[in-house]
Amino acid sequence: MRIGIFSDIHANYEALSAVLEAYRRESIDTYYCLGDTVGYGGSPNECAEIVRQVARRTILGNHDAAVAGRMDYSYYYEAARHALDAHASALSPENLSWLRQLPYTERIEEAGLDLCHGSPVRIEEFEYIFAPEQARELLPMWDDLAHLTVIGHSHLCRVFALTRTSVEELPTGELTLDRDRKYVVSVGSVGQPRDYDNRASFTIFDSVSKRFWFKRVEYDIEAAAEKVMRARLERNFAQRLYIGV
């Protein structure tokens, strides 16, 4: 089975549309979204409706949780809180209801796959994994991990291979999973990449061959940025799209 896995759309319709168009050339059997469909961008309803239709499973992200009233976000900085409040007001009742019932995590047994937004350690706290030190926190739960755990949240592309006692960071691009190790893969961001590559990020996993691919695609950044400005959100949310940070 060829699985499309993507995350952190952040209400960027143009990026999501480009990613789904690229997926159509990849013979994907099913899709999973790792959360943060909303927040920051100018198209929260449009993105929520598309993800609801396309993804077999969608995981709760921290921005989704904030907009849905499932977490305290008073400690977020002012511009981010403003965007969350604006999205909570703009979303349709159907899309808000959908966010309110999303799970924090899900296991896909037939694919040997765990879906999370952030670290599976303290799952409701949405902690990051973008360095080996953070991945090492998973070693005590080795027996409970699936062969592959895919996460979003950091907006970075990362691969960590785990044994019972060690963590090794591997290059991104294309990899084949070793049956004797377990993996944590951060899939990057569709709508707001932060690795100085402004192209939308998406990934593919073949559950039979155990091969995993990172992919990038260009999209209409100007149109996405204009929507942010028209929504009267923080100017930097638009500007950072051009530089991918």
Features:
245 residues; Purple Acid Phosphatase, chain A, domain 2; 29% helix; alpha/beta; 6-stranded mixed beta sheet
Notes on the structure:
- The protein has a single domain (2-243), classed as Metallo-dependent phosphatases (Purple Acid Phosphatase, chain A, domain 2).
- Helix content is 29%, strand content 23%.
- The protein has eight helices and twelve strands.
- Strands 3-2-1-11-12-9 form a six-stranded mixed β-sheet. Strands 4-5-6-10-7-8 form a six-stranded mixed β-sheet.
- Strand 5 (113-116), helix 6 and strand 6 (148-151) form a beta-alpha-beta unit.
- The mean pLDDT is 97.
Quickly describe the structure.
By secondary structure, this protein is of the alpha/beta class. The protein has helices spanning 13-23, 44-54, 62-67, 78-90, 93-100, 132-135, 221-230, 235-243, and strands at 2-6, 30-33, 57-58, 105-108, 113-116, 148-151, 157-162, 167-170, 174-176, 182-187, 200-206, 211-217. Helix 7 packs antiparallel against helix 8 (235-243).
Compile the SSE list and pairings.
Layout: E1 2-6, H1 13-23, E2 30-33, H2 44-54, E3 57-58, H3 62-67, H4 78-90, H5 93-100, E4 105-108, E5 113-116, H6 132-135, E6 148-151, E7 157-162, E8 167-170, E9 174-176, E10 182-187, E11 200-206, E12 211-217, H7 221-230, H8 235-243
Parallel strand pairs: 1-2, 2-3, 5-6, 6-10
Antiparallel strand pairs: 1-11, 4-5, 7-8, 7-10, 9-12, 11-12
Helix pairs in contact: 7-8
